[in-house]
Structure formats: C-alpha cells, structure tokens
Design brief:
Layout (H helix, E strand, L loop, with lengths): L1 H24 L5 E5 L1 H4 L3 E4 L1 E6 L2 E6 L6 E4 L8 E9 L5 E10 L17 H5 L1 E9 L8 E5 L3 E5 L10 E9 L2 E6 L2 E7 L8 E7 L7 E11 L11 E5 L5 E2 L6 E2 L12 H9 L3 E5 L5 H4 L4 E5 L15 H12 L3 E5 L9 H9 L2 E8 L11 E2 L14 E2 L3 E6 L6 E6 L2 E9 L2 E6 L6 H4 L10 H14 L1
Parallel strand pairs: 16-19, 16-20, 20-21, 21-28
Antiparallel strand pairs: 1-15, 2-5, 3-4, 4-15, 5-14, 6-11, 6-15, 7-8, 7-14, 8-9, 9-10, 11-12, 12-13, 17-18, 22-25, 23-24, 26-27, 27-28
Length: 471
C-alpha cells in the first residue's frame, strides 16, 4: 500500500512538472502582452469599414465599397513573435488573415501607407514585406497557407478548410528563429521554415469579403508574445481627448457624439485619431474632470468646443480646480491643444478663464461663413513658415472664432487672416499650449469627401500630429 502511494505521488509530481514545463514552453521564452479591447481600438485602421468595441470583444466590419479592412499594431515587434486570439467570422464570405513582420521594403521597420489607401491587398503583397497567414480561406476555395511578401512564395499550407462562420476559433500564428506555423483550436495545421526570415515589423489583422458579400468578425482575448517590451522608438505618447467639458448626446440614440475618437460621422475625430495611432500614439478619452492623476498619464491633452447651455442642460464648465490642474500639468511639461468654435457654438466665459492663464482670449465671433458650399470663402492660403504648415498651400476653416492676445502676453500667433489671429502658441514652464479658433480637423473636413482636392487639411493634420508628439 505504501509502495502504491509512493508511486502515485511520484506520478503526480512527474505530471505536475511536465505540465509546468509545457506551460512555460507554450510562451516560447518570450514576453507576453495582453491586448485589451481598448488597446486594440488604438491600433491603426486601414481600409474602409468600421471597428468598434462590443463588450469584451472588438467588432470589425467592411463598408459597402470596401476592398478590405485591417487593424495594424502601433508597435514594431522584433524578430520572434507569436500572436494568439479568438476570432469569429460573422458572415460565410469572410476571409480571415493575420500578417506578421509587416514593414516597408528593405531594412526599415517602418510602415508607410498612401493617404488614399482603400484597403486593397496588392499594396501589402507586392510593395511591403510580411508573412501573410490566411486561415479562414474557404470562400476563396483555397486551404490555409502562409505566403512571404513581396516574393509571393507560399511557404506552407494545410490540407483542408475547417473554419465556418458563427463559431469562435483559437488562432495562433507564430514566427520564431525562422520557423513559421499556424495553429487552430490547438491543432497545428502546418509548420514550415524560412531560411531567410524577415526581421521585425508590425502585426496586422485583416478581413475581406468575397463575391460581393461583406466581411465581418469578432475578436477577443488577443495576446502577443515577443522579445519586444516597449515601442521601438521609446515610450508611446498618450493623447487624451476631453469628453467632459464637451459632452454631447445624440437625441435619438442617447449615445455620446461629436468630436470623439470613436465617432466616425462627419462630426467625429476618428480620422484625426487614426493619424495619431499611425504615428504610434495611444488614444485616451477623458470623460471626467482633468485631475492631476489623470493628466499625469497624458503627453497631450485636447479640449474641444466646451458645451454651452444650448448644447447641454447641465454643462460641465471649466472651473478653477480644473484650471489649476491643467496649468500645473503644462508647467511640468504637458502639451495642451485647445479648439474653440464660432460664437453661438461654444462656451467662452469659463473657457477664456483657462485661456487667459496662457496669455490670450477667444473672441466669440463667427468669421469665414461659407454659404452654399462656396469653399473658397473658407480658404486660408497665406500660410506661415511653421512646422504645422510645411508643404501645405491651402487649408479650409469655416465659421470660426478669433483670438486676441492679453497685455504682456508671450503667446505668438502662428496663423493670421488680416488682423484676426486663428492659431497661436505659447510656452509655459516646460510645456506648450496651442490654441485654434475652430475644431477644423473633424471628419467632414479632414478628407476630400466634401472638400475639393486643392485643400490640404489632412496634410496639415499630419504635420500637427508630428508637432504635438515632438514636444
């Protein structure tokens, strides 16, 4: 009896040791990073469609005219990398793809994409380096495979398709010391070797519909194993967008709207946010008073068009405690970006108490009306020699406020239209404040969906993002 107990104990010890070793081996000796749904929303959206949080999941869906949509990591992952996540195709026509080591051609680990990129696959298969893993591939009548781009060489493939819509699958795609593999629900579909492996790069998750039917999917429980523990360029800048002083609700849906990272309508900042994400920044929405604890986690804080009583029954005004917290944060090195609006659309009394600390005041007027889409009446062409307007010949602003400098102000105008100051900036302690008379980079006027192509708001937006991050 004692011998049997001893054997049982030894067996249990062996089983525990083996299981522990297996668990350690499953992480391949790499650093594990858990990507939350909020983290995933900070990835760059490329192509046409929408990405939104749905509880503990992230939903991706193509638009009607889409040629594919993908999420691209803001972080570059060095050499060895393993991606694990659960994914469910929402339509039978959905093709699911993961890309590893995505970068421009050559030694660069950067990824540059044209401003007018429409989601077409050709850019990534012929003009970028990557490992292209296609696993729910039945709609194309092709079994799962991994292909090396831009060579177009298939390195490994599975014998059959098994994934269907409406079911969650556990996916693992990996690259370690030249080995490449795909695992679905714990079963390794193939493993292959690239004798000349690609170096580090971004990660991308892509979907595409087939035969005119749109693609959609749900993603959750995303983990990345790598030997990268931080952004290759150092700490990722954190960009906070106020949603306390500007807190508007849609009358029909009851949901928050207007000047939000997540608002993809004409009045949203989703496209502006995508530029920040493309530059490696993390986006945060600040739905409460900007306390010191909140501000200390931000590199850039943006306040847009604070609510008046015409926009909210109970506006959250900028009060003295808020002013003190913001002022001290800027003094310690923070960068503050202020967007006003024209006279009837913005609350100026409390907003100007904050502005006055930095040497200027907004004037509640309404300049540059644009009747009947007469776009040129909102054109600004006398642009200064300033980083925000490098390579920019013309921008569009309509229905703006104006700015006046206070006595002995150290604020320096950047952009003027005659005597009217439209943009000004000032240093304050270790930090900087940039003030603009209009939220002119919202979705409606950052692209050319409505604006004539002679306007370069998007180019100016890229410049402004670079300028803010560089501070």
């Amino acid at each position: 009896m004692k011998k049997k107990n001893r054997n049982l104990v030894l067996a249990l010890v062996f089983l525990f040791t083996a299981t522990s070793a297996l668990g350690q081996a499953s992480d391949f000796g790499l650093h594990k990073l858990v990507i939350s749904p909020d983290d995933l929303l900070n990835w760059t959206v490329m192509g046409k469609g929408k990405v939104e949080k749905s509880g503990s999941q992230v939903a991706m869906q193509e638009s009607d005219d889409s040629k594919g949509i993908m999420l691209v990591s803001p972080v570059v992952y060095d050499n060895d990398v393993v991606v694990r996540y659960k994914v469910m195709a929402l339509t039978p026509a959905t093709v699911l793809v993961a890309l590893l080591s995505v970068s421009d051609l050559g030694d660069s680990d950067k990824l540059t994409v044209p401003e007018d990129f429409d989601g077409s696959l050709g850019l990534f298969t012929s003009e970028k380096e990557n490992y292209f893993f296609a696993f729910k591939n039945g709609p194309h009548n092709v079994t799962p495979f991994v292909r090396k781009s831009p060579e177009g060489k298939t390195l490994g493939s599975a014998s059959e398709n098994s994934m269907i819509a409406g079911v969650y699958y556990d996916i693992e795609v990996g690259k370690k010391q030249g080995k490449l593999w795909l695992t679905v629900d714990g079963e390794k579909l193939f493993e292959t070797t690239d004798p000349e492996p690609l170096k580090g790069g971004h990660i991308a998750l892509r979907i595409r519909g087939t035969a005119g039917f749109k693609a959609g999917c749900l993603i959750k429980d995303l983990e990345i194993l790598s030997n990268t523990t931080e952004h290759v360029n150092g700490k990722q800048p954190v960009i906070g967008l106020d949603n306390w002083f500007n807190r508007e609700y849609d009358n029909e849906t009851g949901k928050l709207r207007h000047y939000l990272w997540t608002d993809t309508t004409y009045g949203g900042f989703s496209d502006f946010g995508d530029i920040f994400k493309e530059k490696g920044a993390v986006l945060k929405t600040i739905g409460q008073n900007p306390s010191p604890d909140i501000l200390d986690k931000l590199d850039v804080y943006i306040i847009v068009d604070p609510d008046s009583t015409s926009e909210s029954d109970n506006p959250n005004y900028i009060l003295q405690d808020d002013i003190n917290a913001i002022t001290n944060w800027v003094k310690d090195g923070g960068t503050l970006l202020l967007f006003a609006n024209n006279g009837p659309e913005c609350e100026f009394t409390h907003f100007n108490k904050l502005a006055e600390v930095f040497g200027f005041q907004y004037i509640p007027v309404s300049l540059h009306p644009v009747p009947n889409d007469d776009w040129e009446t909102g054109a600004e062409t006398n642009l200064p020699n300033h980083p925000i307007f490098k390579g920019v010949d013309k921008i569009f602003m309509k229905n703006t406020a104006s700015i006046k400098l206070t006595t002995n102000s150290e604020s320096k105008p950047i952009l003027k239209d005659g005597k009217d100051i439209l943009i000004t900036e000032t240093s304050h302690g270790k930090g900087k404040v940039i003030a603009v008379v209009d939220p002119w980079l919202y979705n409606e006027y950052i692209h050319h969906n409505r604006l004539p192509k002679t306007f370069q708001n998007k180019k100016a937006a890229y410049n402004l993002v670079d300028y803010l991050i560089a501070q």
